Request: fold
Amino acid sequence: MRARGPGLRDEREKRCIASLEFFGILWGVNKVGILKAIMDELQAEFETLRRTSKKTRAAGNDEESKAEGKYDTRSTEDNYLADGLARQAHAALQAGAGYEDFVPPVFGPDTPIDVGALVQLAFPDETHWFFLGPAGGGTEVICEGIPITVLTPESPLGKQLMGLKAGDATASPKAKVRSVE
Reply:
């Protein structure tokens, strides 16, 4: 997910999809679609943050933004904001790069949860799907009409899920692992 032309990204996606299909990872769950949705969301986040950072930087350095007095800090604040947005854009770019060559393993009914697992958790009032990914925690995507939230192993819930199997439970929040795919 480097900031290059769309042709290179499309080619990497084709290689990723081809390798997933080769290893037979498409049984029952469309992980290819999930990975593509995650990469697309991270790319869109990168583009939005980059564009906003550039606009904010331009506004902060515009002649009309020049300080009108010693207490006028609009220009400085705009530049600080632009720096923060640029850092967030870079983080989204790095998260997307974590998926470029990522091939999730196949999970069976007794396979412990690890990176690449699609996990359905049953909370007291609802169920929710989570994808344990190498990066991009908190990213939310919809794949085949199902909302999926990306978790990383470093997140509090991700740490709890690592190594669990279908039927096991988490402590906080209280949830039961309904399926691991």
